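User: I'm preparing a small set of examples for a lab meeting where we compare how different chains pack in three dimensions. I only have the primary sequence for this one, and I'd like the structure in token form so I can line it up with the others. Please keep the answer compact; I'll paste it straight into my notes.
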Amino acid sequence: MMPKKGREGETTADLLAYLFGPGDHDEHVDPHLVGGWDPDLPCPAQNPDRMTLADLALLLDAPVDALRGPRPTEHVWRVAVRNAPTDRTLSDARWATVAAEMVAAAGIAPHGDEHACRWVAVRHAPDHIHLVATLARQDGRHPRIRGDIPKMHTAARSFETAWGWSRCHLSTRPRAELRPRGRRRKPPAGA
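Assistant: Understood. Below is the structure token output for the 191-residue chain.
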């Protein structure tokens, strides 16, 4: 299982429209919610008369809009979680379990935290989900998400062990992701 962070963004509505839409090459099949901060949240794809994508975006963005002080310029957090091609296909219920553990590990929605960030898990393919959250807690504070991806990798290892899956190694990531972010300076001669 491999969590991979997507680019953070400014508009929740645009990201949801993409995730629930056909995709860039009509690859999105049966897009629907498998989890979220509210377990009774209606799915816009399955219950459009009760919840539209615009409604869902407004609900997700509400804590951001209520922030006192500066609003984060990029307030949308997105991570895709994918299982290996050799692993069995998960049910929506299993993906919901994975989603809850991943957002807890990331610091988006720790277990039992009623004031955590609002988030949803969207599934539009058999082998992965997308986690979408807004980076404002419901109590007006910012979430502590430093080191979110390494913590999510640790959570992924526990699922791989428990379910007897193939282990996805960090070395399977594209080379560009493995390069250091900055240049290392050479020490001055004679130092």
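A couple of notes for your slides: Residues 171-187 have pLDDT under 50 and may be disordered. The first helix runs from residue 12 to 20.

User: Perfect, thanks.
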